[in-house]
Amino acid sequence: MKMNVMAGLMALLLCVPAAGIAAETIVSTDWLEANLSKVTVVDIRKVEDYRAGHVPAAINAYYGAWVRSKEGLQNELPLDEALREILSATGIEPETRVVVVGSAASVGENANVTRVAWTLKYAGVDNAAILNGGFEKWVADRKPVSKDVVKLKDKPYRGKLNKAASYLVSKEELLNSIGKAVIVDARESDFYSGAKKAAFVDRPGHIQGAVSLAVSRAFNADGTFKAPGELEAMAGRAVGNDKTGEIILYCDSGRAASVWWYLLSESFGYQNVKLYDGSAQDFAKDPSAPMEK
Fold first, then answer.
1. Quick check: 249 and 70 in contact, CB under 8 A?
2. Are residues 132 and 12 in contact, defined by beta-carbon separation less than 8 angstroms?
3. Closest CA to 253 of 238, 275, 230
4. How far apart are CA 173 and CA 274, in angstroms?
5. How far is Cα 226 from Cα 292, in angstroms, rounded to an integer?
6. Would you write out the chain's pLDDT as a tens digit for each of its 293 residues?
7. Which candidate in 46, 234, 251, 287 could, as Cys together with 257 as Cys, close a disulfide (CB 3.0–4.6 Å)?
8. Alpha-carbon gap, residue 201 to 36, rounded angstroms
9. Alpha-carbon span 279 to 202, nearest angstrom
10. Quick check: 246 and 274 in contact, CB under 8 A?
C-alpha cells in the first residue's frame, strides 16, 4: 500500500516504519530526546561549537577525525588502525546505537553528518542514525542544551570493518562498472555539465555515462530533509526503481555523495549502493579515465 507524502513525512518525524523509509535511520528531535538514555550521541562539530552547547550527554568527535588526506586526495577513509582508534576512543562498539549530530547550516555540513554515518557503517557499526536538521533543529525545537563536556569512554573496538565493495569502490572498480552500473554524480548541475569545476579537480565534466542528482536537492531551506515521498521519487527518476542493481555515487571528494548514499541505501531500500571515495578528484587525475560534458 502506497503512503501519501504527508503520511510519509510524519513517519519520518516519528521514526515509525513507513513505505520508503526505514525505521530510525533519520531521527527527529522528539525521538532523540525520548531516547537519549538508549543511544550514544556523537557530535561532529568543532570543539568550540560543542563547548558552547550540545545535546545532553553527547560526546565530541570532530568531523576531521573521521577522514584523512591520502596522496593528495581529500576526505578519504582513515587507515584501518586509525579508524579503530577513533572508535575505541569514543567507546563505540559494533552494537552501539549511535546518532550522529552535526550542523545543518549548509549542504556541506549536512554531508559531514552522512559521511560519518557511512564511515560508522563501513566500520561495522550497523545501528548508526543521523539527526534530521542537525543541532540547529534541536535548538529551534527548544530541546535541552548542555555545556558539560562528556568524558570519552576508551574501550577497544571489537568490530570487523566492512571491506566489501557494497560500501566502497576504487577507480579501477568504477571503470569496470561503466556501462553496467548506474553512476550518479551528486555535484551541482554546473559541475556535472562542466561549466564549473572545483579547484582541486583537474578536469571539468562528469564520469562517462553518469546521471545527475545534486545533493542540494535533498534539503529544505532550514537544512532538514525534504519529505520522504518527494526524495524517493526524485531518486527514482535518476537511478530507476530497481532496488538490486549496482549504483555508484561520487562527487568532488567523496563527502557530498554520502547524502544520497545514505538515503538510497539506508532509507529507501536500494541494496547495492556504493561510494567512490576518491570521486572526481581521483578520477580526473587520470587522463585516460573517460569524462564527458
1. no
2. yes
3. 275
4. 11
5. 30
6. 333 333 333 333 333 333 333 348 999 999 999 999 999 999 999 999 999 999 999 999 999 999 998 888 999 999 999 999 999 999 999 999 999 999 999 999 999 999 999 999 999 999 999 999 999 999 999 999 999 999 888 899 989 998 765 689 999 999 999 999 999 999 999 999 999 999 999 999 999 999 999 999 999 999 999 999 999 999 999 999 999 999 999 999 999 999 999 999 999 999 999 999 999 999 999 999 999 99
7. 251
8. 41
9. 12
10. yes
DSSP single-letter state for residue 21: B
- Residue 211, amino acid: V
Which residue type occupies 192?
Y
Q: Would you list the DSSP string of 180-229?
A: TSEEEE-S-HHHHHTS---TT-SS-SEETTPEE--GGGGB-TTSPBPPHH
Question: What secondary structure does DSSP assign to 38-67, as a single string?
Answer: GSEEEE-S-HHHHHH-BSTT-EE--GGGG-
DSSP per residue, 69-110:
EETTEEEEPPPHHHHHHHHHHHT--TT--EEEE---SSHHHH
- Which residues are CB-contacts of 176 (< 8 A; sequence separation ≥ 6)? none
Domains and CATH numbers, the chain: 5-140 (3.40.250.10), 168-292 (3.40.250.10)
Q: For the chain, how many residues are written?
A: 293
Q: Would you give the distance in Å from CA 195 to the centre of its chain?
A: 26
